[in-house]
From TrEMBL:
<keyword id="KW-1003">Cell membrane</keyword>
<keyword id="KW-1133">Transmembrane helix</keyword>
<feature type="transmembrane region" description="Helical">
    <location>
        <begin position="688"/>
        <end position="710"/>
    </location>
</feature>
<feature type="domain" description="MrpA C-terminal/MbhE">
    <location>
        <begin position="694"/>
        <end position="769"/>
    </location>
</feature>
<dbReference type="GO" id="GO:0005886">
    <property type="term" value="C:plasma membrane"/>
</dbReference>
<dbReference type="Pfam" id="PF13244">
    <property type="entry name" value="MbhD"/>
</dbReference>
<feature type="transmembrane region" description="Helical">
    <location>
        <begin position="6"/>
        <end position="27"/>
    </location>
</feature>
<dbReference type="InterPro" id="IPR046806">
    <property type="entry name" value="MrpA_C/MbhE"/>
</dbReference>
<keyword id="KW-0472">Membrane</keyword>
<dbReference type="Pfam" id="PF00662">
    <property type="entry name" value="Proton_antipo_N"/>
</dbReference>
<feature type="transmembrane region" description="Helical">
    <location>
        <begin position="373"/>
        <end position="392"/>
    </location>
</feature>
<feature type="transmembrane region" description="Helical">
    <location>
        <begin position="34"/>
        <end position="56"/>
    </location>
</feature>
<feature type="transmembrane region" description="Helical">
    <location>
        <begin position="248"/>
        <end position="264"/>
    </location>
</feature>
<dbReference type="GO" id="GO:0006811">
    <property type="term" value="P:monoatomic ion transport"/>
</dbReference>
<feature type="transmembrane region" description="Helical">
    <location>
        <begin position="631"/>
        <end position="649"/>
    </location>
</feature>
<feature type="transmembrane region" description="Helical">
    <location>
        <begin position="276"/>
        <end position="296"/>
    </location>
</feature>
<feature type="transmembrane region" description="Helical">
    <location>
        <begin position="170"/>
        <end position="191"/>
    </location>
</feature>
Amino acid sequence: MTQAAIDLTLLAVLAPFAAALIAPFLTKHLKHNAAWPLAIVPAAIFLHFAGFIGPVSEGESFVASRAWAPSYGLDYSVYIDGLSMVFGLLISGIGTFIILYAGGYLKGHPQQGRFFSFLFLFMGAMLGLVLGNNLLTLFVFWELTSITSFLLIGFGHLRAASRRAAIQALVVTGGGGLILLAGVIMIISVTGQTEMSALLASPDVIKDSGYYLPIFLLVLGGAFTKSAQFPFHFWLPNAMEAPTPVSAFLHSATMVKAGVYLLMRMHPMLGGTELWMTVLPVFGGITLLVGTILAVRQTDLKLMLAYTTVASLGLLVMLVGTSYERALEGAVLYLIAHSLFKGALFMVAGNIDHEAGTRDVTKLGGLRGAMPITFAAAALAALSMSGLPPFIGFIAKEVLYYGTWGAPSAAMALTVTAVVGNALMLVIAAAVAIKPFFGPKVDTPKHAHEGPVLLFAGPVVLSVTGLVLALFFTATGTMFVGPMLSSLMGTWTEVKLVLIPPYVNAPLILSLITIGLGVLLFLQLDRLRSAIAGVLTAIGWGPDKGFDQAVAGIVSLSAAVTRRLQGGKMQTYMALTFLATGAAVLVPGYLGGGWPTMPKMPVYTFYEWGILLVAVLGLIAVLIAKTRLTAIVSLGIQGFAVAMIFMLFGAPDLVFTQLMVETLSVVILALVMTRLNLSPRDHRKGGAALVTGAIAASVGVGIALTLIAISQQPFDRSLSDFFTEYSNSIAYGRNIVNVILVDFRGIDTLGEIAVVALAGLCVLALIRVHTTKTLPEEDQAPAPSGSAKREAA
């Protein structure tokens, strides 16, 4: 494969973002036909990744890179191996039919263009995540998936439930992303590597370091929140408030599998340890059982499928946690199978809702004749989800049972958990494929009929693909499963799949038990649903309710803190600000033992003693001033004394600046004081004066000690030499200070000017204020006379 073809992958990641820009305009002009040309983008990306199947199946991997921020060692780079290639194929392939499906599902919607744009942003973020070679760029795309999913889940923002679901997903997954960021920083610090390909070349570096435990926990925090592992599973079913195209894409090949992808990608670096093989199977197994049990309770088709997605993610995490080759092979196969049948079933649920007007399975029946194509797609996908031959779901179930039965530890517990979970998923698959389509015809809110090709193309193709991959099982193992498994194992591993076991073995017996148990439970579905609902009602509290309580607690806490710290008194604000400043300069020196040694008293000349005397007299004048105005004018004495010190050291430009600043400060403050309705002086006495005096002293002493400590450090001339050498040659200026301010620190200077301008606006607002209601009582003067009022106006 040529380097140009490899480098084209960099553009393939960016292509959905370009499509997001043109989607609204294309939708505006093409109306109902915009989905067809827009679907060309993910289809072209799919064909591009398909070109890697040959070399990747032979054990090759590829890296394409472009400098992004070289000074930070940050490159925009992609890494293509079996794992990222298959994810790229799933995202772009399923994404093609999701775009088509959205064109039919939201036909005539006034915001369809915006929806397409959000979908493409989401697709691009997910592609960037799974292909990202640089850890920092991977994190950027990781968080971008959270942001774009927030936009998609909250697409119907006029509904409170939609807004709540979007915020909940953003808080949970975004918070997990921040945890992952800490893990990424630790990985970079421990290994000295920022590229995933370099880490895979030395996979034991993290395990051999003393930081394996915190890195492991931080990576799990990001993965568990993104892939909805217990107890973070609650956000995923609530995301069903999004339109069905989002649900189908989110649950099949994109965001919810991002956490599983991360665990698979990090398996060579973090897997195989006792901690890994304990924590992941436990939480994955719990998530599998919780998801399937909650799925059985539901009657909404989308919620039933959503909870089984939670369960499937738990199954994948459990299998990855075993670090056993056959279990990892089962995880890879099940990930592919799940992406196909779950994407198809979600689109089937959307078709039913779109054409019949309801998703409640208890209010549906007899749709087989009215929606024959949708029924056929539902049946094929449900058979794969149930793990029945000859579908890819059956092969996946057989292999994962090989993995759990032969796991090096807790084999029986893993196997029983997998059997129970798969049996309950069979119940849901049967309910979705049988309940709406069989039985007597039920009157639905809308006259049920088959939708247009845009609505059924996706479920038909995805469900048939699950059948084709199983029938051509040898090619499936060679082209997809083997390369993916090799990525997880860290070494090249060959895979040999079979469709029908050649003899009766443990996995086949376990499959028969699963099918029998699933059929038995399906026949008792109504009773089972009622029993689970009763138990959950008795329990009452759950993580979803806990999220609301946590948010309410944070809001209450913030309100209490705001009332306490921001009660409208300027005195309180200033006291807290200076208290924090004093603590910032004193506490580190106290805890770190970094107090400076007191310098010896230098020998001063008489004029130097004179300047110090002026400064001391100015300080005394401030302290004994009878009025605020006198204190402000006396404070200017300090500034003028500092200007004289600058003059002694031969810095006339600083002297000029200092004199101008002090003069303007005194003038402006005096002007403000004459226009504000304040008492002539500060009336605080006793304890209040003692407290504020102590705060002021802490700031002064702390800053003085900090300056002394800095002055005792060896002088580093590197910056001075740099500015001396380049001020004239680069900026064409001989006044180094001016060049620094205008050229080298031009943006900083612009920011400082903005601050001064903002301060001036605040001063203007204070001058024009007409009320003193928010001022402290002790600072209020008697009401002004009529002439004073006119003057203020």
